[in-house]
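All the exercises in this workshop are built on plain-text protein records. A record pairs a protein's sequence with a compact description of its fold. The structure tokens are whole numbers drawn from a learned vocabulary of backbone shapes. Once this layout is familiar, the rest of the handout is easier to follow. An example says more than a description, so a record of this kind follows.
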Amino acid sequence: MAVRFVRPVSSAAFMARRLALAAFLLLIIAVAAHRFGPLPTPQLAALVLLSAAIAAVSVPLALRGLMQLWAIGARGGVAAAGALFLALPPLLLVGFCLWRFETTPRLFDLTTDLADPPTWVRQPQADQIWLKRPMFVTSLERQTQKTAYPALSGRRYEGAPDRIYEAVMKVAKAERMDLRPQGDSPIARAEKAAERQVQAAAQVEDAAGALSATPLPAIVPVPLPRPDRKVAIAALETPSDVLLQGSTRTFALGLPFDVVVRLREEEETTLVDLRIAARYGAHDLGFGAGLAEGFLRALDAEMLGIAKQ
């Protein structure tokens, strides 16, 4: 009579694989729905934590399955190894976020001008649910930024604001920043100023032609035109700063950040300052500084290329 050896089956290994697969799929769906869909960041954070918790439960079950394979030759070694592989992404993502939380300064709002930050044209608003963000930035946080990111500073370029404006918009598009001018752009302002100059020159020519056609006595007092009070007030109230406000996202997870760029004309140069703030939570995990520095480096390269032309 033939003797058949029946291998035991490790139920823990197969259970671990099912749990790890569920955690992995939950992570992929949550990240995709947040990056390309309507899922808000607070819900993403909750789903990532849930995915990591399920993956953490599957790890000891997978290890038990491997131990049973070693001790009694139980079936389930492949399932246990697969469970460990599937559980790795959720655990690594949460571990990476915790590492960034502990190693980067606790900041959510960064600016290149600590003394006079660019102001929001429209205050960013979002339903933050449980990822609450402070209402104001304290002086201590600004000092912390100065110590942590000393290289994060504004840029000064030679040229008029309309020339710098075109470069900023080109770089913003390349860096996936959705910036929109608040009010008239520098190009529109320059066109309006040119139109006003043309109209003024035409009026002077008309007045000169009328005077030349009219016989004048030997001595005629020519009164100076009275300045238009409305035009003078409008000129004084015209803002010298150009503000571009919009938003951007991190590449992988799609974490949203609000951005405002300020162009300020000073003599023959234009000063460019930037402010970037995380839309959710009191800690941007260091992503805000990376986005700001990447934008400024790209703008430096663009302006250098324009200067060489």
